[in-house]
Amino acid sequence: MSAANSNPRQVSGRANATCGAASVPGERRGRPALSSRQRPGALERMPKWLICIPLAVQWLWLAARYRSATLPSAANPAITAGGLVGEGKLEYFNGMGPTALAATARYCPVSTHCKPTAAELLQMMADTGLSFPVIAKPDLGLCGYGVRRIDDIAALRGYLAAFPRDETVVLQAYLPQDGEAGIFYARDPDTDQGRVIGMALRYFPQVTGDGQRNVAELIAASPRAGRLLASAAHECATDLARVPGIGEIVRLSTIGSTRVGGLYRDGGAYVTPQLSAAIDAIARDMPSFHFGRFDVRFETLGQLSAGRGFTIMEINGAGSEAIQAWDPATSLLEGFCMIFSKQRVLFAIGDAMRRRGVVPIGLPLLARLNRRQQRLIALYPPSN
Q1: Which of 113, 244, 255, 370 has the lowest CB atom count within 10 Å?
Q2: Could you read off the pLDDT of 96-131 as tens digits, one per residue?
Q3: How many other C-beta atoms lie within 10 A of the C-beta of residue 147?
Q4: Angle at CA 328, nearest 5°, toward 325 and 332?
């Protein structure tokens, strides 16, 4: 069975009703405007363990069908476990050719084996064209854990001092664009056809001022933003005592993960042949990359749909979530269909790569990689 025969729904057909508000159509700071209603959707309200049950059942069924529980690890053979778990962010960057590198934010790795001096850090940054503010993130991480905006050398040294020893930190250019998207890509090894199979628009956690309540009170009154203060792995850098003016939107976090109150919207209606072609060209400029999600910042949706005006922050492989399923406008059944479809495509690509001689990772090694990743996440400095 080829991956081309397991297409997920590429476009939801809901257009602006899916991605934007029921109020004012069009873009606000690069994306469709949000309505005042930002309550969690059906999947977000479900306990994680309950979501995992049907996904695990399908995974086991696919494992039996394809005779391998770890077959997806063969999808991207140049990446540890195919990007299923335990891979570093630099693994995706280091193999890039000129086309992919030109679309990626500037970065430099910093080892915490012997933590560098201030002068050494500044020289590293200068050598790669970086200047403050920068984003500091773990090379091995997920869901925004340990990701911080760093504004000066003192804050950077403090971050490195709190980071686990003998690991790698990635410093990356801070991207000021408000638009952020996760773009799902798949390439069928049998037909060599690459395409964008889904897109999520990500909104940062925020509150809107009423001229009376302070930021802390506005957060407490928000079913979504309230997660931010409840997360021990996140540090709110916003002045909680400030009273925003009427209608003033206050961004609360550097990261847009749902674990801190971020919001995902299905952006499938904005996927075009031009965007697919641009992402396909980038993916083909990476070693044997067939499946994953490109997380990008962009200026406007018009430019993004035209396949330009975006910058890659990071890439995720076989373990990428179909995050557009977390759109509050998506029903529970639709959300699970999106995730089930993603898993079918992933196994089909893994099977095609196995027929080409790629050997899937073993279960014991996969378990060790997962344990190491979870252990490190618990040790990272809080995100902000």
Answers
A1: 113
A2: 999 999 999 999 999 999 889 999 999 999 999 999
A3: 25
A4: 55
What is the rounded distance in angstroms from the CA atom of residue 93 to the CA atom of residue 91? 6
Local structure of 16: helix, strand or coil = helix
Coil vs helix vs strand at 111: strand
Q: CB within 8 A of 11, min separation 6: which ones?
A: 268, 269, 271
Nearest-angstrom CA–CA distance, 382 and 274? 38
The token pair at 152 is 């000066």
The pTM of the full predicted model, rounded to 2 decimals, is: 0.89
Domain coordinates in residue numbering, the chain: 1-28+42-104+177-203+259-384, 106-174, 205-252
Rounded Cα distance, 74 and 80, in Å: 10
Q: What percent of the chain has pLDDT over 70?
A: 90
Q: Distance (Å, rounded) from C-alpha 95 to C-alpha 195? A: 21
Which is it for the CA torsion 152, 157, 163, 166, positive or negative?
positive
Which CATH architecture is the domain 106-174 placed in? 2-Layer Sandwich (3.30)
Q: 176: cis peptide before it, omega within 30°? A: no
DSSP conformation class of 187: E
Burial 232-262 (b: 16+ CB within 10 A, else e): ebbebebeeeeebeeeeebebbbbbbbbbbb
* pLDDT tens per residue across span 153-211: 999 999 999 999 999 999 999 999 989 999 999 999 999 999 999 999 999 999 999 99
